[in-house]
């Protein structure tokens, strides 16, 4: 079992003896085709059969509509791969499913014994039948992890649901998450780690990094995790791209992925006849470095690779492992980043343990909607302060007298003018520094950003809208110490409240402000 392998790697790393490269974990990413059969599917099955036979790869992960395009489900391939004797890791994203469908698919996966999941927010849906598909994102990755955590202990059905009040049988899920240490700006990078902390609190049991090539950034993630005092297996993604794919990634076409300019320039000079050899060589050296940095394993991926190529990377990495430090300089790209969280250690070229300071663009704090929101919230929405009790009595009186429609009209006139309000009836302005996630985040996220932003711009609206959480960072008053404190996991929007007065729902205790989210930390 893959989860047993990962748990054992934690014990091995903690043991007071020299690490053995044979205990270093390898997984490989399979990308299903937009078809149920054909050459791509046949190649995947052949790769899986060889990997199962040799047994050096611990698991094969299967993407879930990668890039936002429709494809064969990971569940379908997962069952076939499991029958070969190798562990499948099912990518489970939020982009195509509402919360009921998420729960149903989790039942299906548990029934099929496909219990190892990599939970992601997911890329925004793109080309589909007769046009672009509708994004769902009813829950974010943090909330899905929290749901899975409850299922591990036995999910309690809501008392108002059919058969409500009962505890469902426990489900043996082993769920992981993704984080990107490869963000170019401080606001994006800080929020990647803040969201990682929420994922770990929600029950994430292993971590796979996003892909990049700067080893100082890979090391940064390991250091942050250590300072957070979470002991979970950490795998670094090592992409083995063709030159063509590297060009596409460099143009930010694939959300969340980066290829440094200087590395691309090197790749474009490769002789065609040696391109595959050089791809594998770069990957092997990077794998050796991640082994040296203390990662528990790597997650390999790349197009057009046969199993023999991946095995070659593993063998070459084994040969490089003892001398990994001498390759570090080849994987430092400081010109790419504004966002190193740790100061440099001049003796190694890597990070010291000392955190960098950071600055904000305080123009956001001068925004009229922000200032007005702060004042109104302090006056009317902070319990037992200001005019809170008076406002609560007035709103309840409107409700009793049947004149709540006037209040609703007034509320939404005001909020649409200032915040582009979408009338969700369950308002998050007070949680997100008076930024509306329904109108200003393409994925409606409340617990932190997706991984797709680039240079502070939204994945879906590049050069048009700043990422909501970049703007939130500039309005917030905290510093990097927040990374090392437990975070509040914000409950999801309740769609039963849609188009109602959010003020009424707040004062009557109906909205998300009156719900609590359990976390792994709470249960410990």
In a nutshell, what does this entry contain?
The chain is an alpha/beta fold and 524 residues long.
Walkthrough of the structure:
- With about 525 residues, the chain is of the alpha/beta class.
- The protein is about 40% helix and about 10% strand.
- It has 2 domains: about 1-355, TIM Barrel, CATH 3.20.20.220; about 360-445 and about 490-524, no CATH class.
- The chain has helices at about 1-15, 40-55, 75-85, 100-110, 140-155, 185-200, 215-225, 245-250, 260-270, 275-290, 305-320, 370-380, 390-400, 405-420, 435-440, 470-475, 500-505, 520-524, and strands at about 25-30, 60, 85-95, 115-120, 125-130, 130, 175-180, 205-210, 235-240, 295-300, 340-345, 350-355.
- It has an 8-stranded parallel barrel with strand order 1-2-3-4-7-8-9-10, surrounded by 6 helices. Strands 5-6 form a two-stranded antiparallel sheet. A two-stranded antiparallel ribbon has the order 11-12.
- Strand 11 (about 340-345) and strand 12 form a beta hairpin.
- The longest helix has 18 residues, at about 275-290.
- The model has no long low-confidence stretch (mean pLDDT about 90).
